Amino acid sequence: MTENRHRSHGNAQAAESRLSQEQHHVDGLELTAVWSEASDSAAGADRSLVGRAGRFGYAVATALVIVIAVAFIYEVIARFLFNSPSGFVNQFSAYGAALIAFLGAAGTLAHNGHVAVDVLVQKLSPKAQAGLAIVTEAFSVLLLLVVTVIAFGVVMEFWESGYRAFSTSVSFPEYLPQIAMPVGLVLLTMQQMRHFIGSVHRYRAYLK
What we know:
By secondary structure, the chain is mostly helical. The protein is 80% helix and 3% strand.
């Protein structure tokens, strides 16, 4: 009978341990969902300068996707049906792709739209997840600041050199499309700073 009681007690402890692990996992998932929902809601209702600028850049990037698609359709028709290629669509599309990436980055971050691998993060406690978020957000801000300074330097170098981009029919100063790099990075850095501040507030909430 004593052995049965020990066995029952052991089974109860094992069941309690499994329940605790499952609850821990659910809490982590719920926390992530709440963070994501809150971020999406804030991004959609954000009336600050950073939020508006991010949405404007995102809208421009979206419009460029449509314009590039139309330009490629035009180029295919002109080249293969009329044997009269434009001579600028390839160059325009190359610059447009870069503009899309830099101008749309801040708006995408506002909605947590960037790719994230959180398989290991989900195994941490909600408090540990909040603490880790502070570290990663801070590192991201520092990295973006460095890259932004470098991007400004590249634009200034091309501006001072007067270098011009050429295609078969269009010529323009090379620094003009490159301006999107520092502009987009500034917006992305400011949005990343807001995420960092939000992570600090979330972690402080666990300390209360």
